[in-house]
Specification:
Blueprint: H1 3-6, H2 10-15, H3 17-50, H4 57-64, H5 75-86, H6 97-128, H7 130-143, H8 148-161, H9 167-190, H10 195-203, H11 208-243, H12 252-261, H13 265-296
Length: about 300
């Protein structure tokens, strides 16, 4: 067998996207391990000095990478925690990250659906009514200047006083974050049709409903799906933030909170990794539906 055909050449590796991603991952892993050593060693050295223990650099590295409560856990510690809490624990157990992910996912999806619906309805109203544009648009933009960490406890308290508990308050917070990108994207999308096309439909005496259905709505699809990808990620953030002030017993937010209470940084990082993976999967699902819709509309992409 020719060696040149058995192994990829340097040029092919340089052009390969997979090789580039692996290179970035390798650099990040090295930086992470060095960072963990740097952050954890200070605590260890103080402990050695307090207990008058002679130590070597090799012992310092070994202890820094095997601490039970490190300042910065190593990737293998996070991987072991993920394996234990996903595959070695029953899904119904409160120690399972699958259990907590399911709770967060339910409020994320409900908030996303409510936010997408609200954003689309607001955009339709703004595009078709100058009065609504002047009255609503400033409030839509202003709403996002209020930090979600400040408004989330108020939403929880007000809805709790009205006996709305459980998924709904968290979904409302998710909706608050997710409706904005949908509104802005759809306003731009519904106004995307060219003037020439609008005038062509006007010559056919098309009604506003026909112009919307035949021209504005199809033109807005690329803007809608682009904004939905942002909205579903924002909805996940809102669901996690909504679990913090409630003292909820379930959800990735409660997992983060309990980890911070007890200094369980490995638990915190594993929950963060699961949240990041969950967000990426949700964006991919929206992208899948975008391709399906584009294909039904005749797109070749």
């Amino acid at each position: 067998m020719n060696i040149s055909t058995a192994f990829p050449s340097f040029d092919s590796l340089r052009r390969s996207q997979a090789a580039a991603l692996l290179l970035v991952l390798a650099v990040l892993a090295i930086a992470w391990y060095l960072g963990a050593l740097w952050l954890n060693s200070d605590l260890l050295i103080k402990g050695y000095e307090r207990r008058s223990i002679d130590w070597t650099f090799g012992q310092l590295i070994s202890d820094a990478y095997s601490m039970k409560r490190p300042l910065l856990p190593t990737p293998d510690q996070i991987g072991a925690e993920l394996y234990k809490s996903i595959f070695d624990t029953k899904v119904s157990s409160k120690r399972s990250l699958v259990y907590h992910s399911g709770i967060t996912l339910s409020s994320t999806l409900l908030g996303f659906l409510l936010g997408a619906l609200l954003g689309i309805l607001l955009a339709i109203g703004i595009v078709h009514s100058r009065t609504l544009e002047r009255s609503l648009m400033p409030w839509v933009i202003t709403s996002q200047t209020i930090p979600i960490l400040a408004i989330a406890p108020m939403i929880i308290v007000v809805l709790g006083a009205m006996n709305f508990t459980g998924v709904l308050p968290k979904a409302i917070i998710s909706m608050y974050l997710s409706f904005f990108p949908v509104t802005i994207g759809m306003v731009k999308g519904l106004r995307a049709p060219e003037k020439l096309h609008m005038e062509l439909l006007a010559t056919y005496s098309a009604s506003s409903e026909q112009v919307f259905r035949k021209l504005r709505w199809p033109s807005a699809m690329p803007y809608l799906f682009a904004s939905l990808k942002i909205a579903i990620a924002a909805s996940l953030v809102g669901a996690i933030v909504g679990e913090l002030p409630t003292g909820a017993q379930g959800g990735l937010g409660s997992r983060l909170l309990s980890g911070s209470y007890y200094g369980q940084t490995i638990q915190i990082w594993s929950a963060l990794v699961v949240a990041a993976v969950l967000g990426a999967v949700l964006v991919v699902v929206v992208g899948y539906f975008e391709k399906r819709v584009n294909r039904r509309m005749g797109s070749q992409l």
